Amino acid sequence: MRALVYPLKHPLRGFVKAPPSKSYTHRALFASLLANGYSRVVNSLVAGDTLATLSTINSFGSVTTLVSTGEYDEVLVRGVGEYVRNPVRIYCRGSGTTLRIATAVAALTEGPTLIYGNESLNRRPVGPLLKALNSLGVRTASINGKPPVIVEGPIKVRDAEVLIDASVSSQFVTALLMIAPVIGLRIKVVGRVKSAPYIDLTLKVLKAFGVSFERVGYREFIVRECRYLPTEFTVPNDYSSASLIMAAAALGGGEVVIEGLDLSDPQGDKEFIKILKEFGAEVRVRGSLVEVVGSESLVGTTVDCSNTPDLVPTIAAVAAHARGVTEVVGADHLVFKESNRLVTLAKNLRALGVEASVTRDGLVIRGGGVRGGVVNSFGDHRVAMSMVVTALRAESPVVIEGIECFTDSYPNFLTDLRSLGALIEVIK
Questions:
Q1: Is position 310 annotated as part of the catalytic site?
Q2: Structural contact between residues 157 and 171, judged by C-beta atoms closer than 8 angstroms
Q3: Which of 49, 165, 269, 310 is catalytic?
Q4: Which end of the chain is less congested by CB atoms within 10 angstroms, N or C?
Q5: Which tens digit of pLDDT belongs to each residue from 192-206?
Q6: The architecture CATH gives domain 22-234
Q7: Where are the domains of the chain?
Q8: CATH superfamily of 2-19+237-427
Q9: What is the per-residue pLDDT across 323-357, written as a single tens digit (0 to 9) for each?
């Protein structure tokens, strides 16, 4: 499918509720699997990636019921505790979080498990996690440390120490933390930790499910063998997805309020509020409301995205219209996302007449105006959505090929933008 986005004729105005967090939904569903009894995951995100996790935990033996209340979606999960079933084969669609946590959970089961995804996911690295599992006595196989992978458990050691390199992804740490209560682990992290706030999200979920832990910054985590306790967990709303609406509002010339965001939550992507102010946008926070007033005088800035890689596509959309140069640094790990986001973002921006280049660890974007044209999602939901936002203030219409992937993380994205006044057609 393709989307045709027309330049705005009127300023964007209105209210949008921030969608539930994809990251929290993944973690809460896996924790519910490992709890022995019934858990309820309230305000779950129902999207392509989280449906991959829902299918995966069912393969491991849980029984789930998805309930829509009209106001939100929730998942009732009957977990299996430590009695995880060997599923033999798991297909994770395009979800890296699903694959990496599932790889660790599979190590708890008796016998081999084949874990793989779509073409994009099968390019993403998992080698450091496999190495860590090998050190715990688990046999693994892969081609160059990428999916498909075979994991043959079970882990027989208890209260062991394991090293994990988190310089490519913090998801490797998250995967080990998720199984740590079942076997007891002292996790020592080596290398520069990328996307560190996502580890905080994992720990928040563990704590909610009754798991105690000790930590030394992001360098060491001690989780003694214990039971996950069934619970009701309410998924916080998502700053990553909300950043796209904030960016659209900043470019859209009107006034938009995003509802349901919690500034006290450890999500690293709440940093976008500060970043948008650095671009020169007017942003006001009142309790759980974030109000953004559009501006035509945005200016380029420098942003370190070491801990907030998912913001880079949104930042690129704003930078395309901001006067002067915007430099994104600390984002070399975007090479390993659904697409090589540094390359795909730069290519799309150049197709729209924006000067953009890839650096060793980021992007340099010289903004000030966007022509119309044709761009591609490259099968990457965040690239797709960022191009929609970029197109809102283009000189002429923009076509985005492969738009359908936006449903991987934010199924209501186009609906929410249209409710604010954006004119977007989807052509099958």
A1: yes
A2: no
A3: 310
A4: C
A5: 898 899 999 999 999
A6: Alpha-beta prism (3.65)
A7: 2-19+237-427, 22-234
A8: Enolpyruvate transferase domain (3.65.10.10)
A9: 999 999 999 888 878 889 999 999 999 999 999 99
